[in-house]
C-alpha cells in the first residue's frame, strides 16, 4: 500500500496548495521533507488573504478582524511572479 512518503514532491506540492496559509505553516513541522516543500516558492505563488485584514498605525501586520485607521479595504490576495532563483519578487496586490 502506498503512503504519503511514496508520493513525488510535485504531487505533495499540489495537495499542499489547497491548504489555507495557517495549515501550510503547521504542516511544515511534520518532517524535514514537508518543511522543505512548504518553503518552496511555487507553493506561495498565490496567497489568499480574504480572512485577514490590515491593521492601521495602532497595530502592525496582518490579523483577523476589522480594518482600523484610514486604510482602504485589504487586498483579497497576493500574486507573486517567480523571478530568478535566490531572489524574492515583489508581490502584486489584487
TrEMBL record:
Keywords: Ubl conjugation pathway
Pfam family, one: F-box-like
Domain (F-box): residue spans on this chain: 1-47
Superkingdom of the source species: Eukaryota
Database matches in SUPFAM superfamilies: F-box domain
Any one of the GO BP annotations: positive regulation of protein ubiquitination
Region Disordered, annotated ranges: 60-94
Stored Gene3D superfamilies: Ribonuclease Inhibitor (3.80.10.10)
Protein's name according to its UniProt entry: F-box domain-containing protein
